[in-house]
Amino acid sequence: MGSPYEDYLNPNKVFEHYNFTKETPVPPDTPSRQAASAFIVLLCCAIILENLLVLAAVARNSKFHSAMYLFLGNLAASDLLAGVAFIANTLLSGPRTLQLTPVLWFIREGSAFITLSASVFSLLAIAIERHVAIAKVKVYGSDKSCRMLLLIGACWVISLALGGLPILGWNCLGHLDACSTVLPLYAKSYVLFVVTVFTAILLAIVALYVRIYCVVRSSHAELAGPHTLALLKTVTIVLGVFIVCWLPAFIVLLLDTSCPVRACPVLYKAHYFFAFATFNSLLNPVIYTWRSRDLRREVLRPLCCWGPRTRQGHGGTPGRCLLPLRSSSSLERGTQMPTSPTFMEGNTVV
Question: Among 125, 142, 121, which Cα is nearest to 133's?
Fold first, then answer.
């Protein structure tokens, strides 16, 4: 009996699986497909740029070294890597797909799964932190940095494990009848497992936000004030965007696990649904930074170094514009930075 990994370097295996599951192994490289690929690459470049700005803002300013902002930084890192992985995935798709060996194909798809799942797990971590903050649960003691790092580390370890399962053996090489149509080298059982995991995460986030809503509604006046209600609005937006972006992809993957081979033509358009899910990585930093004036100003601060007034020497210098931001909130000027800042329209508040 041969090794289960002996086909990983066989250049004919990818063609064999695509030829079995799809009407045509690779769709023609039409102008419309090229335009769609160019749009996806531009979208991913925007994802990379905005998340780089968020990471730079969080790293530069010690004001943002609290639990909430560190989790936001982790989200930005995972979204940034998702943009990089999706660019690589797009550039290696089409006719180039059949030039890949199975191991390269697993790396191409696995990297996208790892980074996108890390983004989702980061959203879950933020939801947990928000619940901890609103319920005033004292889980961050003197070892809070260790706890935060463990949570962030767990996010990436689980994501690596989830995305690496196919290359470790949970695939359909040698078992064509068990193959996914959307991802022809992945086993349908693995696709179903991934959908189940993401559905559980979605339900967990919904449960946490419902809990936050219940706490706010039943709390005393000092807790159910405008700041907390603004936070509730923010997390509701986040949840809504998450559902809108990911639900179509979940439905397609669920359909893939139940459809016989070549029985569901919509599965041949699955790449559009995954491209749409990528908008979640584009919108995450917009949602969190745009509802905090201080974080927004810090994110946009590097851009002032290339503004017309700075270039012409009118009232600004590059060194000055890169100085750390001082708080614009009177509450923050009078108190120390809290572990878990909340968000309201236009301001970061405590």
Answer: 125
- Stretch (H or E) spanning 342: strand 342-344
Q: Of 71-80, 109-118, 143-152, where does mean pLDDT reach its minimum?
A: 143-152
User: Could you identify the residue written with the tokens 């708080």?
Assistant: 327
Q: Is residue 321 part of a domain?
A: no
Q: Which two tokens stand for residue 306?
A: 């290339």
Rounded Cα distance between 262 and 266, Å, is: 10
In a domain, residue 330? The reply is: no
Could you tell me the residue range of the domain that residue 112 belongs to?
Answer: 15-305
Amino acid identity, position 209: Y
To the nearest whole number, what is the mean pLDDT of the chain? Answer: 79
User: What percent of the chain lies above the pLDDT cut of 90?
Assistant: 27
Neighbour count for residue 346 (Cβ, 10 Å): 14
The CA distance from 225 to 303, in Å, is 35
Distance from C-alpha of 311 to C-alpha of 300, rounded to nearest angstrom: 16
For 271, the token pair is 């790449």
Give the angle subtended at the CA of 244 by the CAs of 239 and 247, to the nearest 5°.
105
For residue 200, what are the CA distances in angstroms to 47, 72, 113, 170, 194? Answer: 26, 21, 16, 21, 10
Evaluate if residue 128 carries a pLDDT over 90. Answer: no
Structurally, the chain folds into a number of domains equal to 1
Q: What pTM, to 2 d.p., does this model score? A: 0.81
Question: The domain that contains 44 carries what CATH number?
Answer: 1.20.1070.10
Assigned domain for 36 exists:
yes
The answer to whether residues 213 and 232 touch, using CB atoms and an 8 Å cutoff, is yes
Asked if residue 338 is part of any domain, the answer here is no
pLDDT in tens, 163-203: 999 999 999 998 899 999 999 999 999 999 999 998 898 89
